[in-house]
Design a protein that fits this description.
The structure holds 2 protein chains of 2 kinds.
Chain A: H1 6-34, H2 41-51, H3 55-72, H4 74-83, H5 85-104, H6 112-139, E1 143-144, E2 147-148, H7 158-182, H8 185-216, H9 218-227, H10 233-250, H11 256-276, E3 279-281, E4 285-286, H12 287-290, H13 294-321
Antiparallel strand pairs in A: 1-2, 3-4
Helix pairs in contact in A: 1-3, 1-6, 1-7, 3-4, 5-6, 6-7, 7-8, 7-11, 8-9, 8-10, 10-11
Chain B: H1 5-44, H2 47-81, H3 83-117, H4 124-153, E1 158-161, E2 164-167, H5 170-174, H6 179-208, H7 212-247, H8 249-256, E3 267-274, E4 279-286, H9 289-295, H10 316-345, H11 353-362, H12 365-379, E5 384-386, E6 390-391, H13 392-395, H14 402-433, H15 442-447, H16 464-469, H17 471-480
Antiparallel strand pairs in B: 1-2, 3-4, 5-6
Classes of the chains: A mainly alpha, B mainly alpha.
């Protein structure tokens, strides 16, 4: 057993799962955030159709994230969820409202505006709550003997509000570049138009967060300004991706804006990880402290290695079945 | 009044899990039914199977959607409200729940997309395959979640040390002593639910004279199945009860309202259990029958609730009455299944309006039976969360205050009330519009499977014009009032 550091392997798996979730549910939450601003009701139909066949699968990654965290790092699960109690409720309520809006909006006429709000409001609240979790993670949690001892709203600070807003802007950018990829005509024009302002917003908010973060915690400061010069390559690559988004929108490339936005998210995420590594429940517990028993980690790992390739194959197949542009009136529902 | 986070968390969990449970219990049965219909349609090319499948897939989509959104809540409840339990049981429950997501949820999510929206995009064989995969996914999911629950009822294959359960044997933990009985009981319950809902809805359409031929086929299929599974459920339930007697005698004592350890225990038909005074009022029972059922001997001894201190007894009245409602409904289901056979012999099955009306009413029965059954097994485990190992009080999140728990309890009730009343209302609309739903496209839809399935033709709001344009529905509406 000593040959493999199971906790480390699991840290990579969970880390990979989180970024997969952020990228995949991020764009369909982003569609919800952009929803109220769409040029017309018909465009809203198309926007929703572009994510309708896949959003359910995307949110399955979130459920896997919850269950996987319980399996591999139960301490993260049993500290962060109580600490974020109210925030988690808001996120779940948001996801419920947007989830059912997929079902009902297409069937509604006079009550359609209610489902529009349900979809947009739910997506926005859920996104903000996810961003606040990131902020709370950077801040750290008040724990004694592996148990959260802080209050109900400790997580809600100016810093976490800012990370919440940053995530809103980021998901909206993922959403707009997804629309560039999946739609055409007037809706695609609109998506091209809003992408640059969204990109600027994202850069400004992410920039403020990056400057602020080292002041939130001394350890993060140390990490960035004394011992690890090499990690400055991450913000540099992030800026390159941002430039790439701007350039590809100017040239009206269809696929590149979305790909580059995903790249921007990945490098930002890596930057977040190096700031706190190897602490998974800052400021006290590392990934080795938070790990479950090796037999549990090994048991699930073996299954994971076997099942994930199968999942990727059939998920890829369903994406392939629904490939191509989504046109107005070509309703899936 | 001091708000107790433990009580509020228990109420919250009972509320969200009960609300969630009614959706999967229906979709598990319905998924297999749809796969069967797709298979028949593929094999015989008879359009009536495709018509039925298309209709029930629409119903499935709505119910499944509500199951998914309410299920997301469940995966976070352990952490938010029961964090000590989550921390202690993570070595077992973490991998088991993860396996459920990996082997079932992804399968269902991916292939449901193709089943719902892919009829014109994939070959018929691939579409049938998708229907089967969705059904298989629901059953795999049942396997894992019942393993997890059964382990909490009859923990095995683990030891408690350093504040957490550690695995000694995965095989013993997963296939713990009560697992196979609980699994069979639950799968049969799901099939009963699917059958009674399809039978009830088909009976209603036959009564209204709508798409009679297709609905007769559907009803007939369901009644044949019920004839087998309704009695089978009683047998499996009996085995499950004997297993519970062996491992959780206090739960059985509560189910029977049995206080003093004794022989020749009567089967109580009615009683008002009084936990404070440790006795029953107004008992009506059949002498020695409980001893006979539980020990297969009139003189069999059954342990009474007084064997343990009051604080280790489950809440007797809830368990006692839930059990009676469940068994009563089960008996009623068997009665309906047998009556169906008798009527079929006389060729009166589709003409006996009283029977069709009865089936209509029975479509709600399996849901009530499932919920009350879960009340029995879950409340009957109290005060334990992991039976004999960890109490509910030890499991609750330490930092949780009564105010926080009350806030989310009210929050979930409000969210569920608004969302799911809309869902149920819409489901009624789908049923009301029926098999003819797509504005009279049914016939050519069967000839032309290239048409995307479209629940979109069922509008959310009730619309008077729509009725004026469709005399069949106007007649139905008249019939309802």
């Amino acid at each position: 057993m000593e040959v493999f550091d199971l906790a480390l392997i699991w840290a990579f798996i969970i880390g990979f799962g989180i970024i997969m979730y952020v990228l995949m549910d991020g764009f369909d939450l982003g569609i919800g955030i952009l929803f109220p601003f769409a040029p017309s009701e018909e465009d809203r139909d198309t926007m929703m159709n572009s994510v309708a066949p896949v959003w359910d699968g995307n949110e399955t990654w979130l459920v896997l994230g919850g269950a996987g965290l319980l399996a591999a790092f139960p301490m993260v699960y049993s500290i962060i969820l109580p600490a974020m109690y109210i925030g988690v409720f808001l996120m779940l309520a948001g996801l419920i409202f947007r989830g059912v809006a997929f079902e009902f909006r297409f069937k509604a006429r006079s009550s359609r505006y209610l489902w529009n709000w349900s979809f947009a409001g739910g997506s926005t609240v859920a996104t903000f709550a996810q961003g606040a979790v990131v902020g709370a993670y950077i801040q750290g949690f008040n724990t004694v003997d592996g148990v959260y001892v802080g209050g109900a709203l400790d997580w809600l600070t100016p810093f976490t509000v800012l990370t919440g807003l940053g995530t809103l802007a980021g998901y909206a950018l993922l959403g707009s570049t997804w629309l560039i990829l999946k739609t055409e005509g007037r809706l695609q024009d609109w998506a091209y138009r809003i992408t640059t302002p969204l990109l600027i917003t994202v850069l400004v908010v992410f920039g403020i967060i990056s400057v602020w973060t080292p002041f939130v915690d001394h350890m993060v400061w140390e990490r960035w300004f004394s011992n690890l010069g090499i990690i400055w390559i991450l913000p540099a690559i992030t800026l390159l991706f941002a430039f790439q988004i701007w350039r590809s929108v100017r040239n009206r490339f269809e696929g590149m804006p979305f790909v580059a936005t995903m790249g921007l998210f990945i490098t930002t995420y890596l930057g977040l990880i190096v700031s706190r590594w190897p602490y998974v429940v800052p400021p006290n517990y590392t990934l080795w402290d938070a790990a479950s028993a090796p037999e549990a980690q090994l048991f699930l790992l073996l299954g994971l290695l076997f099942v994930i390739p199968i999942i990727l194959v059939y998920t890829a197949w369903t994406y392939w079945v629904f490939r191509g542009k989504v046109r107005a009136g070509e309703g899936y529902h | 009044m001091e708000l107790d986070p433990l009580i509020l968390s228990r109420i919250q969990f009972a509320f969200v899990v009960s609300f969630h449970a009614i959706f999967p219990v229906f979709t598990i049965g319905l998924a297999s039914y749809i796969a069967l219909l797709e298979g028949l349609g593929y094999k015989t090319k008879n359009p009536v199977w495709t018509t039925l499948s298309t209709f029930w897939t629409k119903v499935f989509a709505v119910v499944f959607g509500m199951g998914v959104v309410s299920g997301i809540v469940m995966s976070f409840q352990f952490g938010t409200n029961w964090s000590n339990f989550a921390q202690a049981s993570a070595n077992f429950l973490g991998p088991i729940l993860s396996y459920e997501v990996l082997t079932a949820f992804f399968l269902e999510a991916a292939f449901l997309g193709v089943l719902l929206f892919g009829r014109d995009k994939v070959p018929p064989g691939a579409h049938l395959f998708s229907a089967i995969m969705v059904a298989v996914g629901t059953l795999i999911s049942t396997f894992w979640i019942l393993s997890a629950n059964s382990w909490m009822q009859t923990p095995a294959g683990t030891e408690f040390r350093d504040g957490a359960f550690h695995i000694l044997s995965w095989g013993e933990a997963i296939f713990n002593p009560s697992f196979k009985f609980r699994l069979m009981h639950m799968v049969l319950a799901s099939f009963l639910t699917g059958s009674f809902v399809v039978a009830g809805v088909s009976a209603w359409y036959i009564l209204k004279g709508r798409e009679v031929e297709a609905n007769k086929k559907a009803l007939s299929m369901c009644l044949w199945l019920l004839l087998v599974i309704a009695p089978a459920q009683a047998v499996v339930g009996d085995f499950h009860g004997l297993n519970t007697l062996e491992h959780q005698p206090m739960k059985v004592a509560a189910m029977e309202g049995h206080w003093e350890t004794s022989t020749n225990v009567p089967l109580l038909l009615f009683a008002i259990p009084d936990q404070e005074n440790q006795t029953n009022h107004f008992e009506i029972g059949i002498p020695s029958l409980a001893s006979l059922i539980l020990t297969h001997d009139f003189d069999g001894e059954i342990l009474g609730l007084k064997e343990v201190p009051v604080e280790e007894q489950p809440p007797v009245a809830i368990v006692f009455w839930s059990f009676r409602v469940m068994v009563g409904l089960g008996m009623l289901m068997i009665l309906f299944a047998i009556t169906g056979l008798v009527l079929r012999k006389g060729g009166r099955l589709y003409k006996a309006r009283w029977y069709l009306q009865g089936l209509r009413a029975m479509s709600i029965a399996p849901f009530l039976a499932v919920l009350t059954g879960w009340f029995v097994t879950e409340t009957g485990r109290a005060p334990w969360l992991v039976y004999g190992m960890m109490t509910q009080a030890e499991s609750v999140t330490p930092s949780l205050t009564g105010g926080m728990a009350l806030f989310t309890l009210i929050g979930y009730i409000l969210v569920y009330a608004s969302i799911f009343s809309a869902g149920l209302y819409y489901l009624m609309r789908v049923l009301y519009v029926g098999l003819e739903g797509d504005g009279g496209h049914t016939e050519d839809e069967a000839d032309r499977p290239a048409r995307p399935l479209s629940a979109a033709h069922v509008q959310f709001e009730y619309d008077a014009e729509e009725n004026a344009a469709n005399p069949a529905k106007t007649a139905t509406e008249g019939g309802q009032q």
